[in-house]
Structure formats: C-alpha cells, structure tokens
Amino acid sequence: MSRSLEGSDPLPTTDFRESAPGLRLLEGLLAVAVAVSIVHYVDNFANYADYPEPSSGPAPSRTVIGVSWFVFTAFGAAGLFFFAGRRIALAATCLTVYAMSGLVGLGHYTVPGATGMPWWRQLHVVVDIACGIAVLAFALWALRRDRSQAAVGGTPRLR
Length: 159
Prior knowledge:
Layout: H1 16-19, H2 23-46, H3 62-84, H4 88-103, H5 119-151
Helix pairs in contact: 2-3, 2-5, 3-4, 4-5
C-alpha cells in the first residue's frame, strides 16, 4: 500500500537569512573585505621592495605576507560558516582573527616613509584597515547581541 503526501503538513523550510540576523550584512562585509585584502596583499607581496621597511623591530617577509592572507581568509570563511550556523561565540572569535588581516595595515604607518607611498597604495591600505575595523565591530555586535538575548531569557546560542 502506498502512502499519499496529500493532506500532510508541508515540510518546514529553513532560510539561514531569517534564522541568523545580520548574515546578509556579514556576507557583504566579508565580500568587500576579501576583495580589498586581495588587492592589498597582492600588491604588498608583488611589490615588496616598494614598501618602506622598519629600521628596527619586526618586518614580515614576502612569504609571511603571502601565506598570512590565506590563513586570515580561512578564519573569515570559518566565521561566516559559524555565524550562519548560529554558533556566535565561535563566529566572533574567527571574525576577530580575520579582522586582524586589515588591522595589521596600521603597521605600515609605524614606518617612516609610509605616507610617501603613492595615493592608490594609501587607498587600499586605508580601506583594508577600515574593513578590519568593520569586521571587528560586527563580531563584537554579534557577540553582545547574542549574550543580551540570552540574559533576557532567550535561548543562549553560545557554543
């Protein structure tokens, strides 16, 4: 005997965009941040000698710069994955690590001569820093929102 699906309840649908407020914003933010970081890191890697070097203190090698982009970007992707799955604490941690990808650009301005770089180089460095600030702000917002919802009797989602 075969069973008919007529008259049965429809299967529930899950839309992560509805279940994870802020997901679209995070997707857009990461898309811009990754695109800008590609420009910045490729320029920094390919034109390594054109960037001013510190007279003292650490100076990352060309290889470190190239590899670090992949490491940072993996954390950004993980942050997006965890956020979509509503694992907010893990997402915030990964997004904070990813934010460092842009924030390390501040290091350029600790070196004499950095403000003498061409305008287009200044632009992508500064925009990368701004993206880092924005991703960090999003991570802090998401964590604070999640914790405040748990505190007012909502279901805690920290995992």
